[in-house]
Amino acid sequence: MTGGSRGIGRAIAIGLAREGADVCIGYSSSEKEAAEVVREVQGLGRKGYMVRVDQANLDEAVPFAERCISLLGGVDVLVNNAGICPFKPFFEIDKDLLVKVMNVNFLSHFLITQVVARHMVSHGVRGRILMISSISAHVGGLLQTHYTPTKSALNGLVHSLAIALGPHGILVNSLEPGTIVTDINREDLSDQEKRRYMEKRTVLGRLGDPEDMVGPALFLLSDENTYTTGTSLLSDGGMLVNLQ
User: Fold this and answer.
1) How far apart are CA 149 and CA 76, in angstroms?
2) Which residues neighbour 119 within 8 Å (Cβ) at sequence distance 6 or greater?
3) How do the domains of the chain map onto residue ranges?
4) What is the pLDDT of residue 244?
5) Which of 3, 69, 123, 140 could cross-link to 82 by cystine, CB 3.0-4.6 Å?
6) Which UniProt keywords apply (predicted)?
7) Of the listed 151, 174, 232, 235, which one is catalytic?
8) What is the CATH number of domain 7-235?
9) Average pLDDT of the segment spanning 155-171
């Protein structure tokens, strides 16, 4: 799993361990938080590992995937969760920031998935691959012109990967969280007026918690999912449909 030290990634990693999975998480700077996730996974009686990876540097993507496969002794589930969204006006986004967001949110995941899928195919593993996309794949954001295209790209990748890997029994899907309170948007949501507005945009009257994403993710990754592939599951508290 990429981006497994905090937020949605942490919640899914621990959820997988509760269901009996050994887990290897990637992290970039949150070493303390990653170690805490590993301890929690091990406390559930499962094996837990952490591997540092800077996904902005594409040269680190393949070694990261290979290291996780080696530590676990094989992989049958992949969750691509890592993502960044440094909120910035369109005219202030320079090439370096654009490339960094594209690398972390999309290109590194392409390369990591390629390694893991090749392992699955070569070992006859009828695995599950999940991309953590976003409601932003469907709607825009004033300060997210570098971010929203990466989430649309993940969904497009899912469509083609489902076709490429389906003959091998590998199911590929994406999960699209709505506004989930995590480190990625905590500062943005510190504006109480904006937070209240975002809460009212949902039909449930609240923003999401990382734990809200665990159930949908576990279904898509589980053996109970036998026929769902190439699709996106929107889990947004009814935000997208709430026009008025």
Assistant:
1) 28
2) 69, 74, 75, 125
3) 7-235
4) 73
5) 3
6) NADP, Oxidoreductase, Rhamnose metabolism
7) 151
8) 3.40.50.720
9) 98
